[in-house]
Amino acid sequence: MKDEQLLQGLEPIDSVTAGLPTPPRRLSAGLRIQIRGRSIKLRGLKRPPKGLWRWLLILGPGLVATSAGNDAGGIATYSSAGARFGYDLIWVMLILTVSFAVVQEMCARLGAATGRGLLALIRERFGIGWTLFIVGVVVIANGGVTLSEFVGIGAASELLGVSRYISVPVCAVLLWYLVIYGSYARVEKIFLLMTLVFFAYPVAAFMGGPDWSEVARGAFIPTLRFDSAYIFLLVGILGTTITPYIQIFQQSSVVERGAARHHYGPERIDAYFGSIFSNLMSISMIVATAATLYAVAGSSNIESAADAAKALEPVVGSSATLLFAVGLLGASLLAGAVLPLATAYAVSEAFGIPKGVNLDFRRGKTFFSIFTALIVIGAGIALIPNVPIFPLLVGIQVLNGVLLPIILVFILLLVNDRRLMGDLKNSRACNVLGWGTFLLIITAVIIMLGGQLLELFGIQLFGQ
Fold first, then answer.
1. H or E stretch covering 218
2. Total Cβ atoms within 10 A of residue 433
């Protein structure tokens, strides 16, 4: 009864909003009500953000998803490209920036148009057989990248003077505990702050004193080498730039965000900006490494994290190893939990299995088992003695490059399905760029695998 009397005492002063069931944000910012003769200002709804704050809110899943590619495997691959071939692979990165942006935008559009993740759409449109096949591809690709994160944790800790036989098991248990018991989000910001060390790469790219005419030549004049190491690294760059898990993460994040198909514009901006920003960072890694390693010692292989850290010496001098270790550890920890979790979500989504860290173990048995298995296997393999760390990291990115065309075909088929997409169906320009990206990747993969297959029969297709 008291509640009814209180409600009767509410007298909206703003006559425009008095008859609306839900006042619009623009009009409700300064709304006052009368409660028993007292005027009180409502503060629950605020004016929509403008200017810089508006853009910071827009930039979300796309920026996070694309930046995730600059993890342990990405750093190893881009650094190896700069140390081995100088500036000669920058042109590939420029082409991939366009391709990456187009693919990420298609995934964001799929999520906004359908409200469902990639694997759920594959199950609905192509059946259980193809779903099982894609789940296998996703588990292999993401499992490999998860392994690379624990290898990165071990490499970073050894630069800091801690044995990987201590750091890797401890970090595996810590990440498992943080995710399962719901406190990962609290420390995620700390891991993210640690990765800000890699913002030193653009500075190092300038302070390393590169020959800018050579940088321009490498960027705008394509250089193709009939060389097995060159083709191998080219496929690795493709795999670490347009990594399969990034597409799955992008689409799922847009779905989670609840983006509406009729207000899709901000997600497009987010996908484009994230792709461009991420690849500028990647290009700066190549330039910095080429200026400090390739220009000094000529073509060389990066065999350890200490070798890669030298690219930061023009910026921080003798502290390069310490800062690189902190950044590598943060990047690896950040992705070390997200990748197994994203894989568990994707596989559960594909088969309609209950998923989520808020479930108890009985209801989420399959979900938690997948997550735990990836953590255990990734950490276990990373502890194998005498593993060549950086060659292994690059090799995993090459594996991603080999598997990428399979995922890309399904994305292109789905985004061209008018029944799903309606007016958000792919344009002709997007199809040209999308299928062009597929042809670029599949051609490089066929050349690489064909050359390696012929070598088994004693036929040398490439130079060494």
1. helix 212-220
2. 19
Beta carbons within 10 angstroms of residue 25's beta carbon: 11
pLDDT of residue 41: 47
Cα Rg of the chain (Å, integer): 25
Confidence bin at 202 (pLDDT 50/70/90): confident
Q: What is the DSSP string of 285-296?
A: HHHHHIIIIIHH
Closest CA to 314 of 279, 332, 281, 290: 290
Which residue in this structure is represented by tokens 């595996």? 172
CATH of 51-456, one of 3.10.25.10, 1.20.1740.10, 3.30.70.1350, 3.40.50.150: 1.20.1740.10
Average pLDDT value over all residues in the chain = 80
User: pTM of the predicted model, to two decimals?
Assistant: 0.80
And the tokens for 296?
């000094």
Task: Output the DSSP codes for 385-402.
Answer: TT--HHHHHHHHHHHHHH
Going across the sheet that includes 38-41, the strands are 11-12, 32-35, 38-41
The confidence score (pLDDT) of residue 134 equals 92
Q: Which residues have C-beta within 8 Å of that of residue 244, sequence separation ≥ 6?
A: 137, 138, 141, 142, 400, 403, 404, 407
DSSP code, position 43: -
| pLDDT category of residue 250 using cuts at 50, 70 and 90 | confident
| H-type alpha helices, 221-319 | 228-241, 244-257, 265-289, 295-297, 305-309, 313-316
pLDDT recorded at residue 207: 86
Residues 6+ apart with CB under 8 A from 416: 425, 426, 431
- Identify the H or E element spanning 181: none
- Burial status of residue 109 (CB atoms within 10 A of its CB: 0-12, 13-18, 19 or more): buried
Amino acid sitting at position 57 = L
222 secondary structure, DSSP code: -
- Whether 27 has a pLDDT exceeding 60, the answer reads no
